[in-house]
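Hypothesis: this fold can be encoded by more than one sequence.
Test: take the structure tokens below, design a sequence, compare later.
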């Protein structure tokens, strides 16, 4: 006879408590609005408390149901002031298989993620507008994947939140923190650009440190923004169909021998790349830049050359027009 597991009772009690608190707070704000409009600071504080309660509620419900799957969306920068965002569940640990991104295959051409040589502590993360294969070795992404088109670019008019946060879905020992970048002289450089985010929540999620690499300041704010990110946005806005974009760092001669910053030893990449694939035209090319302040705008390289330099098959099985 199987013994009853009493350890599962607390989540149920927590769930009921959180439901009550959330409804009480919501009702309080609603009734307040019927009489006297609260001040801006008071309203913002109430909203933050409600968001935290709802995130906690979601966590308790998933714990009670025994779920451990990757959520379809990461949380926004709740708790960003402390340098960390609460997370609803753990990411999928992956050996480079496509199944790791079963929650967000839409960000990959034909639903097939890149073929990457497995390394320790690689984890798949899904967000509203992009997907990340994260490395616990470098504490940065292996790559970040996006799907852009005319509609998504047209909707990308959100105000930047600028609230960076550590993604708490990652184990603490594997994630970058705000303290790692402090005093480094390097920017927190977006891989999936904030300017391409189509919703408020996607914008907030783009400030996850999992979506950042330590990037040379003048490069990030200069040639990378104008000759790479802006050029990609402009192309996607004109394209007749979907444009798949994969951005990532390259560590040379290796991750372990690359410069590290901060107490967490976040690795600094030697190169950055951005692959652009036009699905309708079956054409692909890549921007390739040294990660330094002296980098100048250069002509894109071919897809075959990018595969050769990185060892990653980014578009497995897709026929390409030269």
């Amino acid at each position: 006879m199987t013994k009853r597991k009493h350890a599962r009772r607390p989540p149920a009690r927590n769930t009921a408590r959180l439901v009550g608190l959330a409804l009480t707070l919501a009702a309080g704000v609603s009734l307040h609005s019927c009489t006297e409009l609260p001040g801006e600071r008071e309203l913002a504080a109430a909203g933050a408390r409600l968001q935290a309660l709802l995130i906690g509620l979601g966590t308790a419900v998933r714990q009670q149901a025994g779920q451990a799957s990757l959520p379809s969306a990461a949380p926004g920068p709740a708790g960003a002031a402390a340098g960390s965002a609460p997370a609803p569940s753990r990411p999928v640990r992956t050996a480079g298989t496509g199944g790791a991104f079963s929650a967000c295959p839409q960000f990959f051409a034909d639903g097939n993620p890149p073929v990457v040589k497995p390394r320790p502590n690689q984890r798949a993360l899904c967000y509203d507008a992009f997907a990340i294969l994260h490395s616990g070795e470098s504490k940065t992404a292996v790559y970040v994947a996006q799907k852009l088109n005319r509609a998504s670019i047209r909707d990308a008019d959100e105000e930047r939140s600028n609230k960076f946060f550590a993604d708490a879905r990652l184990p603490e020992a594997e994630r970058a923190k705000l303290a790692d970048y402090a005093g480094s002289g390097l920017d927190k450089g977006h891989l999936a650009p904030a300017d391409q985010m189509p919703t408020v929540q996607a914008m907030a999620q783009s400030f996850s440190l999992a979506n950042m690499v330590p990037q040379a300041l003048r490069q990030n704010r200069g040639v990378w923004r104008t000759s790479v990110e802006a050029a990609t946005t402009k192309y996607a806005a004109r394209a007749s169909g979907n444009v798949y974009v994969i951005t990532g760092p390259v560590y040379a001669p290796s991750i372990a021998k690359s410069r590290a910053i901060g107490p967490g030893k976040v690795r600094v990449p030697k190169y950055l790349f951005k692959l652009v694939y036009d699905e309708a035209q079956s054409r692909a090319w890549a921007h390739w830049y040294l990660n330094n302040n002296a980098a100048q705008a250069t002509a894109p390289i071919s897809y075959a050359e990018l595969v050769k330099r990185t060892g990653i098959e980014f578009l497995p099985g897709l026929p390409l027009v030269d």
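Confidence is low (pLDDT under 50) at residues 1-38, 40-89. The first helix runs from residue 9 to 35.
Hypothesis status: open.
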